[in-house]
Design goal:
96 residues; mainly alpha; 3 helices
Length: 96
Amino acid sequence: MLCARIINGIGTGYLNAIVPVWSAEVASHTSRGAFIALEFTLNIFGVVVAYWLEFGLGFVGDGRSQVRWRFPVAFQIVPIIAFMVRWIANVFLLLC
């Protein structure tokens, strides 16, 4: 769990350091601020969802259940699987 938190912290640091610079370089001057504001808004929304998820799971099994740490991990995997299925379907359609 400690390793996962370290990796997540490094990833979040990269996200906050690289994405604003990248979007400032590739976006037109009229939409630059909107892109950066959207990125930080979505980042904060993700943190809020994670905090409320952990708060709610603290009441499951008096806070000692394995669901408390297994469900957040599975919750992160769901969007990845959805995007991978869509990507694989698009690649398959392009090859046919």
